[in-house]
Specification:
By secondary structure, this protein is of the alpha+beta class. It has one domain (about 5-110): 2-Layer Sandwich (Double Stranded RNA Binding Domain). The chain has 2 helices and 4 strands. It has helices spanning about 15-35, 80-110; strands at about 5-10, 40-50, 60-65, 70-80. Strands 1-2-3-4 form a 4-stranded mixed sheet. Strand 1, helix 1 and strand 2 form a beta-alpha-beta unit. Helix 1 (about 15-35) packs parallel to helix 2 (about 80-110). The longest helix is centred in the C-terminal third of the chain and has 31 residues, at about 80-110. The two termini are about 45 Å apart.
């Protein structure tokens, strides 16, 4: 793509080697999203740590994608930040799939002709000989 989407990180350590992997996974998902959501302004990953000094660290992550029309927010938590990044990417891609289906349905509805025909083809005084017209 010709234009890079700004992706900000909050709460990830610069020295941690997994930070670069998380950012590359999320940036890859954003590049896929750019095909459907061409109006992405920026994205942000916010990670909160619980028990960082212990042997295991629990993560709460929020991935926010800001477009010109709406804000998409995805959250996940777990013990492995890479699995969380995969899950957040999958959630974004699933949202895009549903957006594509909705757009295709709207396009199909717009292409089908709708004929507006009055219910009765006769005046109210001749109701005994009236026929009902079916609206497509």
């Amino acid at each position: 793509m010709s234009e890079n989407i700004p992706l900000y990180e909050i709460g990830l350590s610069k020295e941690d080697p997994t930070t670069e992997l998380v950012m590359s996974k999320l940036y890859g998902a954003l590049e896929k999203a750019k095909n459907v959501l061409s109006d992405i302004i920026e994205a942000k990953i916010s990670v909160e740590h619980q028990n960082p000094e212990g042997s295991r660290t629990h993560y709460n992550a929020t991935f926010t994608v800001i477009t010109s029309k709406k804000r998409l927010i995805y959250t996940d938590e777990g013990w492995d930040i890479l699995k969380i990044a995969d899950e957040l990417s999958r959630k974004l891609e699933n949202e895009l799939t549903s957006m594509i289906i909705i757009v295709k349905k709207k396009a199909y509805v717009k292409k089908t002709p709708i004929n507006v025909i009055p219910k009765y083809s006769c005046s109210s005084s001749q109701k005994t000989n009236c026929s009902v017209m079916i609206v497509k």
